[in-house]
Specification:
120 residues; mainly alpha; 5 helices
Amino acid sequence: IMRKIVMTLVAFMTITMAFAGNSDAKSFHETDAYDMHVNIRRLGTTLGLTIDQMDAVKYVHKMFRTDMLDASKASADKKAEKVNEAVEKNLTYMSYVLDKKQMAKYTTLINTTLANRGLK
């Protein structure tokens, strides 16, 4: 009888940990989608940035990452609004740094990234 109790307890704990693990994994992936980390050098090469533009883009992108991580922590009904605000702010600031051709490429990259992550 003692063996059955221990086995039942072990099975119960295993199931509980499995469910807890799944919810943690889900929240991790949801938060991970909002992490907008990119290789700034590669972005600079793709957009054809000058050294001055690279510094400005690095700063603006750092603000964007912070805004997106804040959006990830918002309540479910506010997430989309926070993401839209972060993207609009980012695109506005980038429009001061990039020329029209670079801005068109950057906008395409941002929209594609957001769509691939299920944020748009």
